[in-house]
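Tokens in:
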């Protein structure tokens, strides 16, 4: 049974419920070219004892990998040579009430489309030795492969789409969606500058791949409380998922159930036929996981029913009884 946690500073924090969201910070290994770093994303410090403690408690682990693209300075991009994709005039809301309350507040930004080309792929191919330097590569997400992997798996493809997305409203950082890279820093710069619109691009930071340990979700209940340790809930990439939305969904459920347990209330299990969150968790705890998991609409037999425009009809009553929404929301 968990009764709290001991921080790196040796300070002890006691709690009736603990939610662990360790992300990719359990035994992480950053790979960039032929270099390896035992650090977390953005060079953050890692947990040194947590993984060993979880193994001692009986948890089993899977070794996965994910990656991220380099970030580009916006004012070094030639946007005039790229196709501009304007956002919809009205964002999609989950209820009429949200539409009334928040309409006009959100100001989505345009993104720009470019493509890799023959020269891009040639640069990657000449440097694949650094990509395969780790002989026992961990399993990566199937639905968003790195540019190195796309070059290997689809040699017949002459180009790949790159969406240039602003990371913040006012910031300089541009996220090149579809350009995940773990090659050496000098090679990444050459790859970027081979792409139309990015000929003079300057990088804010370089991309990388990261291997990490994730707990096999067979050790979880449908509430996201662990089967092996009472009062401990897990959420996010530690549960073998990939993607921001999947992590947020698990955090909502784990946080809700941890709070209810601390108050002595019954925990909640979402119906997989009535919500994608319930479907995601049911998939995790009931099916073998062999790769970083992402929920897809095509996986659900109820995909015609599970739509954003009826989410209020499906879930608002439950949310009200759980104290998560008011009748005016």
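Residues out:
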């Amino acid at each position: 049974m968990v009764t709290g946690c001991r921080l790196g500073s040796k300070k002890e924090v006691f709690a009736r419920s603990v939610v662990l969201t360790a992300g990719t910070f359990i035994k992480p290994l950053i790979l960039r070219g032929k270099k390896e770093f035992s650090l977390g994303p953005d060079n953050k410090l890692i947990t040194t004892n947590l993984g060993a403690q979880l193994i001692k408690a009986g948890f089993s682990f899977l070794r996965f990998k994910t990656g991220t693209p380099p970030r580009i300075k916006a004012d070094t991009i030639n946007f005039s040579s790229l196709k501009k994709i304007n956002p919809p005039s009205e964002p999609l809301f989950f209820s009429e009430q949200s539409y009334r309350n928040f309409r006009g507040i959100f100001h989505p930004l345009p993104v720009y489309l470019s493509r890799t080309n023959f020269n891009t792929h040639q640069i990657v191919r000449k440097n694949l030795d650094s990509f395969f330097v780790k002989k026992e590569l961990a399993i990566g997400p199937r639905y968003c492969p790195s540019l190195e992997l796309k070059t290997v798996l689809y040699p017949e493809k002459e180009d790949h789409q790159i969406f240039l997305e602003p990371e913040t409203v006012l910031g300089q950082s541009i996220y090149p969606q579809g350009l995940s890279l773990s090659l050496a820093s000098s090679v990444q710069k050459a790859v970027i500058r081979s792409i139309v619109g990015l000929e003079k691009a300057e990088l804010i930071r370089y991309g990388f791949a990261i291997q990490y340990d994730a707990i096999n979700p067979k050790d979880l209940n449908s509430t996201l409380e662990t089967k092996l340790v009472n009062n401990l809930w897990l959420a996010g990439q530690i549960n073998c998922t990939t993607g921001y939305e999947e992590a947020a969904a698990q955090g909502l459920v784990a946080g809700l159930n941890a709070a209810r347990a601390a108050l002595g209330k019954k925990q909640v299990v979402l119906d997989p036929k009535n919500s994608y969150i319930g479907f995601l968790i049911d998939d995790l705890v009931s099916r073998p996981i062999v790769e970083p998991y992402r929920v897809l609409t095509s996986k659900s037999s109820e995909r015609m029913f599970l739509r954003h425009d009826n989410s209020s009809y499906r879930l608002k009553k439950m949310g009200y009884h759980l104290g998560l929404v008011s009748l005016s929301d």
